Amino acid sequence: MSPASLPHRPIIATRVQDSVPVFRSGGGPVHEDALPPTGAGFTLRASVDLEHDASGVVVALGDWNNGWALWLRAGAPVFSVSLLGAPHRIEAAAVATGPHEIEASMGRDGEIVLSVDGVPSGSVRLRGAWPFRWQIGGAGMRLGHDRGIPVDEGHRPPFVLSGAIQITIESHALAALLGEVPTNAEIAARLHRE
Question: Which site among 2, 18, 45, 89 is 20 to 30 Å from 114 CA-CA?
Fold first, then answer.
């Protein structure tokens, strides 16, 4: 049996673009240990092609005890965070049918900014310290649906979002540690110098 025919093949980082892993929908969960470190903040970027009044989970990690989720309600992007059971939510205005870029950037200072197609839509500051890990032994990151207990009571799993989803997670800790991270082309050029 080929991996493509398995009913629950894992979501994988199908490529690395400018040293940032790219995840695509169509499989099972990604364990938090396989994700870039998020404890010092991170930027989540989602590319989605939405139907009219789309509703469903774009990506979720964790639950209402500790976790975060990007989801849509009637075409409106929502980013939810639960930090030790304290809910935080940013809601944007509904977007038109078609392709969109949705970004949630979480700073180490606890500020979260939600942007749609490059335009900031709102922000919120967490009440508490940013966690080093969201879930220990948790269900993993899921794209296009959720499972178990949701991060936000505004939806109930599985809350499936149809269509292709592609996300990247850029770790602020890795960017600070590595400084200017070389692109794949720069790495290849360095490897093939004579």
Answer: 18
